[in-house]
Amino acid sequence: MKTLSLKNLRKTYFDPYAGSQVTAVQDVSLDVEQGEFVSVVGPSGCGKTTILNMIAGFIPYTGGEILIDGNLVKGPGPDRGVVFQSFALFPWKTVLENVGFGPKMRGVPKDERDRTAREYLALAGLSHAADRYPNELSGGMQQRVGVVRALANNPAVLLMDEPFASVDAQTRMTLQEELTRIWQERKPTVIFITHDVAEAVFLANRVVVLSKGRVLDQIKVDLPRPRVWDQLIEDETFKRLSAQVLQMVRAA
Amino acid sequence: MLVAPGQKVRSRVAWRGMNSLVGAALFVTPLLMLVGIWAIVVPLFNVNPRIFPSVGSVAEAAVAAIGDGSLIRHIGASMLRVGLGTLLGVLVAVPLGIAMGVSPAVSAFLTPLFRFFSVLAGIAWIPIATLWFGYGFGAIIFVIFNAVFFVVAYNTLLGVSTIPMTIRNAAASLGAGRWALLTEVLLPGALPNIVTGVRTGLGFAWRGLIAAEMIATNVGLGYMLFVARDFYRTEVIVLGMIVIGVLWLFIDRLLLVPLERATIERWGLVRRT
Ligand SMILES: Nc1ncnc2c1ncn2[C@@H]1O[C@H](COP(=O)(O)OP(=O)(O)OP(=O)(O)O)[C@@H](O)[C@H]1O
Ligand SMILES: [Mg+2]
Q1: How far is CA B120 from the centre of its chain?
Q2: Model ipTM?
Q3: Quick check: CB of A46 below 6 Å from ligand 1?
Q4: Residues of chain A found within 8 Å of residue B175, distances taken between Cβ atoms
Q5: Could you read off the pLDDT of B139-174 as tens digits, one per residue?
């Protein structure tokens, strides 16, 4: 069953300096099955963020369609959870309140949403930080909160735009392993945008390569799970797939 | 493990307590020194009490004013006006500031206006206020309202427009509607700025109040100063000035500064600015 469907998606911006339209997304069509983990890679400026923001409903699209479970996207909504590169946690809410925010918006009573939030915090290994404020956490911990805050709302699709780009390399690997573990446990549908080819292959069932606002190519990733860096870093299939994706991105 | 964090917090609180005691002492010392110099200089140069009173005569004036209840009556009247005017100002300014801050175009358009009126806030409005409202309660409340309103509205607008777009987007993608966006994001996000605005605005309002009371009423600290002048009662004038300054220090230090610190420090918003 298709959870997310992009049909001939198109986006142009008006450039006030040139006085003309710039095309950020030419023509993108993509179907994503329920429970699929899709990584999107491509050179800088190829339209990755624009596509994600359109799916999230943050910006309108110029042409084509975006369907979530068959419904046309018209604005932001709780059926699409977003994880931001800058975390975007609410600084005035505790970690627990941040994670419980989605359920709160759905009208879930306090006891119940606290229970849900604690459950998700445990999933991310953050039970001890429930009552802290975001500014008291490290970047890695903040992004863990960002991920489970989106998950706790049970979205049809989880949208992630370079979520691990602003944490250090060590933490990033841990976060990637945790994300694959969480994905295996909950099987959310994920669109994951990244610059990092190895990251894309490590996480995904499928890697989509974009170029100049179009889908250049796609590759299935059939690596076994659970995936851990210690094993995959030496794995021949992983190396081959990564090299293949890297070539496409560089040719893009 | 369970005890250690608690202890740490407690010792931090104790440290804070010590710190604020030391801070208070450091704060009061120069003021006390000023009183000391005053106590020495006035008798030394045999200053005419019509020019400047001695410490003793001001103390006597204080005892008398407290004894006959007039000081409390003046303070009460002034505080009531400042409280009411501020409350009205904040109640109107915050919703308006938020409504304006939501749209970048509107906030960019209105910012110069609000800056302009923030500078004028308070005293400069007294003449026109007395024309509009006559001499009395209305004119004074208007001056205070005015001092608070523009500064708070401007700061609220500023606070709302500095909330990162991603945080608003995050709320929307978690299912927040308009009302939830207002109460859960815009209001708390702008709160540190609102508190700063109230603090600044109250400073203007306090000065405006004293000035307005000198011409527009028959009770209040400003009036107390003004009447004393007619009778060359310098000790009452100086007493009034001391009360005005000390009251403000209490309002600012014990109410506004801790409030400002609580919102800004707790949320780590200092880093953002
Ligand atoms: N608000 C905007 N106004 C005008 N042009 C824009 C705007 N946002 C993006 N663009 C243009 O659209 C194109 C695609 O931008 P986008 O941010 O989607 O790229 P990206 O693939 O996410 O790049 P990166 O990897 O650097 O994040 C770029 O050429 C960019 O300059
Ligand atoms: Mg981008």
Answers
A1: 16
A2: 0.92
A3: yes
A4: 77-78, 102, 105-106, 153
A5: 999 999 999 999 999 999 999 988 999 999 999 999
Whole-angstrom distance, CA of residue A205 vs CA of residue A37 = 5
**HSE-up of A101 (CA within 13 Å, CB side)?**
35
- Of all residues in chain B, the one with the smallest CA distance to A151 is B174
Q: Enumerate the H helices of chain A as residue ranges.
A: 48-56, 95-99, 101-105, 110-123, 139-151, 169-186, 197-203, 229-232, 236-251
Strands ordered across the beta sheet of A214-220: A71-72, A63-68, A2-15, A20-33, A214-220, A206-211, A37-41, A189-193, A157-161, A80-83
Comparing A106-110, A159-163, B252-256, which segment has the lowest mean pLDDT?
B252-256
pLDDT in tens, A213-231: 999 999 999 999 889 999 9
Inter-CA distances, B78 with B18, B116, B137, B244, Å: 34, 27, 11, 10
| Token pair of B47 as six digits | 């200053």
H or E element that contains A22: strand A20-33
Quote the DSSP letter at residue A211: E
Nearest-5° Cα angle at B162, B159 to B166: 130
Q: Are B197 and B152 in contact (CB under 8 A)?
A: yes
Q: Which two tokens stand for residue B240?
A: 């009034």
A16 CA distance to ligand 1 middle (Å): 15
Q: What are phi and psi of A12, to 5 degrees?
A: -120, 145
What distance in angstroms lies between residue A44's CA and the mean position of ligand 2's atoms? Answer: 7
Query: In angstroms, what is the C-alpha Rg of chain A?
Result: 18
Parallel, antiparallel, or unpaired for β A63-68 and A71-72? antiparallel
Alpha-carbon distances, residue B265 vs A251, B198, B258, B271 (angstroms)? 49, 17, 10, 9
To test ligand 1's pocket by mutation, which of A10, A14, A20, A22 has the most ligand atoms within 8 angstroms of CB? Answer: A22
**pTM attached to this predicted model:** 0.83
3-state secondary structure of A14: strand
C-beta atoms of B172 and A135 within 8 A: no
Cα first-last separation, chain A: 30
The answer to whether the beta carbons of residues B244 and B210 sit under 8 Å apart is: yes
Q: How far is the CA of A11 from the centre of ligand 2 (A)?
A: 15
Q: Is B50 on the interface with A (CB under 8 A)?
A: no
Q: Give B52's DSSP letter.
A: S
**A18-42 b/e (C-beta count within 10 Å ≥ 16 → b):** eeeeeebbbebebebeeebbbbbbb
Reported as a single tens digit per residue, the pLDDT across A57-85 is 999 999 999 999 999 999 999 999 999 99
